[in-house]
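Module 6 notes. Inverse folding takes a fixed backbone as the condition and produces residue identities as the prediction. Think of it as a translation problem where the source language is geometry and the target language is the twenty amino acids. Below is one complete input and output pair. Work through it position by position during the lab.
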């Protein structure tokens, strides 16, 4: 069957690689998604193992609609009894980018009407809508006149890993953080540092990658578990195999931050993950970080300057560049920021620039290779 994994802009290639490792066929990168082919086993594995996917969809219907009536009819004529029944609940998520259909909520309403009308006509009764915890989540994608209807096999978004403590404030999305760790090509063992760790999302994702901890959980409820063809034995086999690969030993993972609250939050998450004794946490300003390693990978997500005056944010980014040059020769440093002007004040030439989105904010994820020689001091032109 054909399947689609959704992700964030900029992570499509990384997700395609993850899918390749899982054994997916016909992998094609799309906009914020990757399509692939596979059977039920792969669908379950994708939900359990993919770190850079937000949800896994199974397209069940494609047609063209050039007005409201043809949209309604396309849905009404499809046999929904294979997926829904009167005592089940459903919800519709819609993404619309079309010169014909302008309002995604209105589209969702029309589609809901067509499904409900089909059941009423056949049975005299209808399934109910439940937007928070439905039995079946239906995903609608309309691009101009092309309508794709998919079943959402994930249910809740896959970014939820279970290590977050309740005190986290404005953390990075876990899927983005995992994608950043993969993009850095960290080898899972050598020195890894997030010197501005905040709630610790980047180090938790690095830890999970290092120890082969699946991002999914055998305790969580997935959308496909409500499908008529749910195979509990197959799911148990997949989660059991995945969990048996978990390594008790982590790579050399380090987190630091200037704020006590950040260090506490990171420790709590490490504790929930069960690796509190192996993730080193230090409360320190980046400029004062005592580095004893001679090489490794740094990933950081510094403040973008919303609360700092422009002049100060430029000198803050200059401090980051100076500290990298002075204390981290031999390292690869990756910086995620939405502040493109401030990034220029790092004073180093990036060897890679990748555009990603942190929520609605367009960001650059830039790599700086900190050679021990003269290149490191070369200012950006
Ligand atoms: C955007 S937040 C990082 C969020 C983090 N990636 C997460 O997922 O929660 C930036 C962090 O940089 C820290 N910070 C600011 N200035 C710092 C400095 N000079 N040295 C170290 N950490 C600093 C802040 O305390 C804050 O936790």
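Target side of the pair, the amino acids:
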């Amino acid at each position: 069957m054909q399947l689609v994994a959704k992700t964030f802009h900029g992570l499509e290639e990384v997700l395609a690689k993850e899918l390749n490792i899982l054994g997916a066929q016909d992998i094609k990168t799309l906009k914020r998604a990757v399509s692939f082919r596979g059977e039920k086993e792969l669908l379950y594995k994708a939900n359990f193992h993919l770190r850079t996917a937000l949800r896994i969809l199974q397209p069940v219907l494609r047609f063209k609609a050039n007005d409201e009536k043809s949209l309604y009819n396309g849905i009404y004529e499809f046999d929904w009894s294979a997926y829904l029944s009167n005592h089940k609940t459903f919800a519709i998520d819609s993404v619309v980018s079309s010169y014909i259909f302008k309002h995604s909520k209105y589209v969702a309403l029309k589609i809901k009407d067509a499904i409900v009308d089909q059941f009423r006509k056949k049975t005299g009764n209808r399934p109910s809508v439940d937007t928070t915890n439905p039995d079946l989540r239906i995903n609608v994608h309309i691009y101009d006149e092309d309508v794709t209807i998919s079943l959402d096999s994930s249910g809740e978004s896959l970014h939820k890993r279970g290590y977050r403590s309740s005190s986290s404030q404005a953390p990075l999305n876990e899927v983005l953080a995992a994608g950043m760790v993969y993009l850095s090509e960290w080898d899972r063992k050598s020195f890894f540092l997030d010197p501005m760790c905040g709630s610790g999302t980047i180090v938790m994702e690095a830890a999970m990658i290092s120890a082969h901890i699946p991002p999914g959980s055998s305790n969580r409820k997935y959308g496909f578990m409500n499908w008529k063809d749910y195979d509990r034995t197959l799911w148990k086999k997949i989660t059991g195999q995945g969990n048996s690969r978990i390594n008790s030993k982590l790579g050399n993972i380090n987190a630091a931050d200037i704020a006590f609250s950040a260090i506490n939050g990171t420790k709590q998450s490490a504790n929930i993950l069960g690796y509190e004794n192996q993730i080193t946490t230090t409360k320190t300003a980046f400029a004062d970080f005592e580095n004893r390693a001679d090489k490794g990978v740094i990933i950081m997500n510094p403040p973008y300057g919303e609360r700092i005056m422009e002049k100060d944010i430029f000198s803050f980014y200059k401090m980051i560049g100076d500290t990298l040059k002075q204390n981290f020769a031999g390292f690869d440093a990756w910086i995620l920021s939405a502040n493109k002007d401030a990034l220029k004040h790092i004073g180093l030439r990036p060897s890679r620039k990748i555009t990603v989105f942190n929520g609605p904010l367009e960001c650059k994820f830039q790599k700086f290779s900190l050679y021990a020689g003269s290149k490191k001091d070369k200012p950006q032109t």
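Reference fact for the lab report: The chain is about 30% helix and 25% strand.
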